Automatic annotation (TrEMBL):
Residues 199-273 form the U-box domain. It is an enzyme of class 2 (transferase). It comes from the Eukaryota. Gene3D superfamilies: Tetratricopeptide repeat domain, Zinc/RING finger domain, C3HC4 (zinc finger). Pathway: Protein modification; protein ubiquitination. The gene is CHIP. Keywords: Repeat, TPR repeat, Transferase, Ubl conjugation pathway. It catalyses: S-ubiquitinyl-[E2 ubiquitin-conjugating enzyme]-L-cysteine + [acceptor protein]-L-lysine = [E2 ubiquitin-conjugating enzyme]-L-cysteine + N(6)-ubiquitinyl-[acceptor protein]-L-lysine. This is E3 ubiquitin-protein ligase CHIP. Signal peptide: none annotated. InterPro entries: CHIP_RING-Ubox (IPR045202), TPR-like_helical_dom_sf (IPR011990), TPR_2 (IPR013105), TPR_rpt (IPR019734), Ubox_domain (IPR003613), Znf_RING/FYVE/PHD (IPR013083). GO terms for molecular function: protein-folding chaperone binding; ubiquitin protein ligase activity.
Amino acid sequence: MAQSGARRQAELLRRQGNKAYERQRFGAAIDLYTEAITLCPEVPEYYTNRALCYLKRNDWKRVEEDSSRAIELDRDSVKAYYMMGRALLERQDYDGAIKKLRKALDLGRVADPVGYMVEEIWHYFAKANDARWEEESSKRVCRLQELRETCVEALNQHHFLETFDRGAISEEVADAHSERLEHLNQVFNTALKDDIPADVPDYLCCKLTLDIFRDPVITPSGVTYERAVIIDHLHNVGKFDPVSRKRLEPDQLVPNLAIKEAVQAFLDEHGWAYKT
């Protein structure tokens, strides 16, 4: 009986906290959610609500702590994985952020594929991937530049010794040296191309949005669409395939795992600063 009373009181505190949050009184909301947690420490929603307040205050350490606790209590909490990913992104743990945000995306696509939160999660998922790629790209460029300088120095040293042995600079030796330097530059310039944004192939883009696939699904007619877009079409326009015009129900949509993997491979190779 006392337990049910504590839960009722905790729920009242949660609702009061929600009202305070809506008024942007984040400190008051945190206090109310904390009281609810004290009464019922096993309810994951109280932790995610408080984490959202900390997020609004950019208190990322506490965001991470509350999100972690919420995940322990509920392994299917989209909000907890999302906010944990945001916190890890802020402290530049890009691999950790990508892992948590990918989990949030997977859960969110099942729970509400056309919801605003999937778009928001995707935004930070892309941002984390881009930050990781930029970091790795910068390291690659630095290593290549150091290697280029070492190779140029070695070629110049070889040219000096070759000239010294001959006792004079000949046109033949000078031309050979220039040719080696040119070839060397071509090799390194080719290597650096991997760090230049690439065009996205058409087959990795949705026919309706013209943007790179995020959650591709295939219809019985063999056409692949972005899940949120085709579901929105089915709900608001009509239950038919936009291309084949054949009748189409939402439960006929099947995840296109091959395209999904191809998109991930493209983004891993070329980064998220791609050209559309």
